[in-house]
From TrEMBL:
Its EC number is 1.3.1.12. This is Prephenate dehydrogenase. Pathway: Amino-acid biosynthesis; L-tyrosine biosynthesis; (4-hydroxyphenyl)pyruvate from prephenate (NAD(+) route): step 1/1. It comes from Caldalkalibacillus thermarum (strain TA2.A1). SUPFAM superfamilies: 6-phosphogluconate dehydrogenase C-terminal domain-like, ACT-like, NAD(P)-binding Rossmann-fold domains.
Length: 369
């Protein structure tokens, strides 16, 4: 029996719990701790955990592996009571899922001489702009990278045990050094969030002068700013815990933008085309990810003319074709302009079927890249 403790049962903690439960239906017991009793109740009702408690030591007691799945800022605070808990099993693995690794690994190292357990930092490189256990899904990490950051001296059998358990997530588990991890994610995840939010803010300023900016904001703007809809508190914590690498990114970016500015100013068509061509070649050459980073669910966007009954029309069409929707959200509706309906499906085949049905009915439908 694998006894697993989940500390913080939100999107990530809940998704790890679900994938382990699915993989070991008879053989895993999930005990959880959260500061919010209501989250534990919901997690139990959804079948995500077997037992919930607001007493940290009770959740840790007897666990083979403890996953700390709280906001990054609280991981270090929780490490001490967990690693030094009298209830911690001899040889237990303590791991986390935080988006940055240097701080937490440093904290864990200060405790390594006094603990009965072993800490191995972790970061599943998949998520969603949704949060909370209600958005958890057993397939969140499928085919995504899951980074582990063991340090020198971490005995190999612990790493192998954790990897074996994480096979349940169907993620690709890789090892990196904590500082290398933080430098890389600053560039490919954290800094892009800053850029997306800054771009929204940038156009928002113009929008104060003319509402045409928002009205005309279509595919490209929506695609590039999608991640600006993520949880602001989570991103505050992430940015604060990876501050120096992100600031470095911004400094490099400003220098590069100076060059782009010169390029645009030059009016040199050939060089401008070369700039776009090179970016296209690099972007097109990115490795295929079947699922990963964001797509925990399959989202379909439908432009909807703002007339009464149109949403009913869309849902009825899907109902007739027996296509189940996991979530439905209206992203924007204003008088006399198009609104956007975001339909979320659990399975890709449902999304594809819905896309066809709605296109056949002359709706303008599109997906994220
Ligand atoms: N959301 C995402 O896309 C990804 C998030 N992460 C990391 O995973 C961690 C969790 O993120 P989510 O699951 O998205 O957040 P979430 O908000 O869905 O869940 C966090 C849970 O932790 C609980 N919590 C907060 N403070 C606590 C404390 N001091 N003690 C116990 N429980 C506490 C909350 O009540 C909530 O249930 C963060 O460190 C984040 O950086 C990693 C990869 C992707
Ligand atoms: O891909 C992104 O940047 C996401 O928004 C999903 C995400 C968020 C936080 C992470 O630590 C890892 C992945």
């Amino acid at each position: 029996m694998n006894r697993i403790a989940i500390i913080g049962v939100g999107l990530i903690g809940g998704s790890i719990a679900l994938s382990i439960k699915k993989h070991y239906p008879e053989d895993a017991f999930i005990q959880a701790y959260d500061i919010k009793e209501s989250n534990l109740q919901l997690a139990r009702a959804l079948g995500v955990i077997d037992q919930g408690t607001t007493e940290l030591h009770d959740a840790v007691a007897g666990a083979d592996v403890v996953f700390i799945c709280t906001p990054v800022q609280s991981v270090c605070q929780l490490l001490k009571p967990i690693m030094l808990s009298p209830a911690l099993k001899e040889g237990a693995i303590v791991t986390d899922v935080g988006s940055t690794k240097m701080n937490v690994v440093r904290c864990a190292q200060t405790l390594s001489a006094q603990t009965k357990g072993v800490f191995i930092g972790g970061h599943p490189m998949a998520g969603s702009h949704k949060s909370g256990v209600e958005a958890a899904t057993e397939r969140l990490f499928e085919n995504a990278y899951y980074v582990l950051t063991p340090v020198e001296g971490t005995e190999n059998h612990y790493i192998e045990r954790l990897k074996a358990l994480l096979a349940a997530t169907r993620a690709k588990v890789v090892e990196m050094k904590p500082d290398e991890h933080d430098r890389v994610v600053a560039a490919i995840s954290h800094f892009p969030h800053v850029i997306a939010s800054a771009l929204v803010e940038h156009v928002y300023q113009y929008q104060q002068e003319s509402e045409w900016y928002w009205r005309l904001a279509a595919g490209g703007f929506r695609d590039i700013t999608r991640i600006a809809s993520s949880n602001p508190k989570m991103w505050r914590d992430i940015v604060l815990s990876n501050q120096s690498f992100i600031v470095q990114q911004m400094r490099d970016w400003l220098k590069e933008m100076e060059q782009v500015l010169d390029l645009l100013d030059s009016g040199d068509g050939e060089k401008i085309e070369q700039f776009f061509r090179h970016a296209k070649e690099v972007r097109d050459g990115l490795p295929e990810t079947k699922r990963g980073a964001i797509p925990s669910f399959y989202d379909l966007y439908v432009d909807i003319p703002d007339y009464p009954g149109v949403i009913g029309q869309v849902t009825t069409l899907l109902g007739i074709h027996k296509i189940s929707i996991t979530n439905i959200a209206i992203l924007e509706t204003r008088e006399d302009i198009m609104g956007v309906l975001c339909l979320t499906f659990r399975h890709e085949r449902d999304m594809e079927k819905a896309q066809k049905v709605l296109r056949d009915a002359n709706f303008l439908v599109y997906r994220r890249d």
